[in-house]
Amino acid sequence: MAESSGKPVAVVTGGAQGIGAGIAAALGEAGYAVVVADVLQELAGETACQLAGRSVEVAGVRLDVTSADEWARVMREVDARWGGLDVLVNNAGISPRGTIESTDEALWDQTMAINLKGAWLGIKAALPLLRKRKGTIINIGSTRATRPMPGLFPYVISKAGLYGLTRQVANECLAEGITCNMVAPGWVDTPNERKIQARHGRPDFPAGIRNLTTPEDVGAAVVFLASRHGRKVHGDILYVDSGLHVADDAGM
Ligand code: NAD
Question: Can you tell me which family this protein belongs to (predicted)?
């Protein structure tokens, strides 16, 4: 990573594409230096190049969120360049389909490792840097953390766990002034989500929900939570799902 300009800095996991790329762009536009961290290193580099073309101070790095060693390396690099961390966004995630019976142990373990354990490892590795700046942690959950749906067995449980993690971290970090919240999108229009819907069928959207949420919508929510005003929100869940979580027919 190159020299820093003294801007506040944000790390976005799974930042190479989809919602993560939208979050990285929104933070960059809001004046943050952004680390686009993704297991797909080449794509992370391409996304970082696009942001650099929009005058964002940015680095694209490889990070497998399930690896404590990789988290340690990324945090060493961030500390060396910026001397701390202002915003950690745990966005990397997978959305497998499965039921109680069709889910095998390998799929359960993989889903929990990426969607839940990855966020814990990130928070653990980032805390020393976040302490230097009274930073904030934002976990990207899902409407499904609180509204289960048939066929999303391991996913729903991983996101419910992420909500529990968010509240426990908020509790442990309260005295230190480090905030922790969860942003919960509903269906977000990303290329990978379209591929999943092409394979498994498009869900019936509840009455009244006409527009899919966009990565830009989620990015704007993250920028708010990272802001001075957003720092008054702590241990909470911010749904960005056009009301899916209160719809009568949201898939329960
Ligand atoms: P996506 O598949 O488009 O992007 C996810 C990114 O995470 C990819 O770049 C992938 O390489 C990366 N990733 C996967 N495993 C990783 C690992 N072990 N380490 C580091 N990076 C890894 O997904 P998306 O739709 O943009 O979703 C992003 C987040 O938003 C996920 O946590 C997902 O559960 C959540 N979400 C998505 C939707 C939706 O409709 N798209 C709805 C609600 C919540």
Answer: Belongs to the short-chain dehydrogenases/reductases (SDR) family.
User: 3-state DSSP call for residue 229?
Assistant: coil
- In this prediction, residue 200 carries a pLDDT of 79
Identify the residue whose C-alpha is closest to ligand 1 atom 33: 93
ipTM: 0.99
CA-based end-to-end distance of the chain? 46
137: containing domain: 9-240
CATH of the domain at 125: 3.40.50.720
Would the pTM of this model clear 0.90, i.e. be above it? Answer: yes
Residue of 32, 155, 163, 239 marked active site: 155
Dump pLDDT digits (tens) for 9-21.
Answer: 999 999 999 999 9
Dist. CA 127–CA 81, nearest whole Å: 17
Ligand 1 neighbourhood includes 158 CB (under 6 angstroms): no
